[in-house]
Amino acid sequence: MRISKGQRRLIWYIGFVIILGGLIYAGWAVLNRVKSNGYHSCLASMAGAVEKVDPAEIRKITGPTVGWRLLDESATNRILELTHPTDCSGADSARPFRDMWGNRVKLRIRERPADRGFDIVISSDGPDGIPNTSDDLTIPYKTNLNELR
Predict the structure, then answer these.
(1) Which of 25, 36, 60, 107 is positioned for an S-S bond with 76, CB 3.0–4.6 A?
(2) Rounded CA gap, 122 and 90, in Å?
(3) Which regions in the chain score pLDDT beneath 70?
(4) What confidence score (pLDDT) does residue 31 get?
(5) In the sheet where 137-139 sits, what is the strand order?
């Protein structure tokens, strides 16, 4: 059976489209991973900046804390505003301190004994927007948020 010139051309076009689609997908996947890594780096910068804030300033916003405490959005934003310009969203200035998917950045704190500051965990709900799933980003990295009670 012979393949006609038109059939060969069709096979070539289909192969070209498949290869082009694969290259586009691979480029998208790499870009998405680079953005995610960059965002994780930005969360780490935020955490480092919060650790440098005077504990008395944090205590004015949060009041006394016992054990781990998830701060509400207002308290989180007030503390993060003390550290600017570490907003990672790079987007809407009317909605600061959002992750790259539009979810709010969450701040958990625990007061250290003897007035030695705070332990800090910064997180975002990741691309799916659902808390406590495998795509969440946390600093320190891979913190199990369910254990922070």
Answers:
(1) 107
(2) 17
(3) 31-39, 84-96, 141, 149
(4) 67
(5) 69-70, 106-111, 118-124, 137-139
- Using DSSP bridges, classify how beta strands 106-111 and 137-139 pair: parallel, antiparallel or unpaired: unpaired
Rg (CA), the chain: 23
List, in sequence order, every residue forming a beta bridge with 137; answer none if it has no partner: 124
What single-letter DSSP state applies at residue 147? Answer: G
| One-character DSSP codes across 11-79 | HHHHHHHHHHHHHHHHHHHHHHHHHHHHHHHHHHHHHHHHHTS-HHHHHHHH----S-EEPPHHHHHHH
Question: Are 58 and 68 within 8 A, CB to CB?
Answer: no
Give the tokens for residue 17: 């489209």
Q: Extract the tokens encoding 20.
A: 């082009």
Cα gap 144→132, rounded to integer Å? 8
User: What is the reported pLDDT for 48?
Assistant: 81
Nearby residues of 39 by Cβ (< 8 Å), 6 or more positions away: 88, 99, 100, 124, 137
Q: Round to whole Å and give the CA distance between 48 and 53.
A: 9
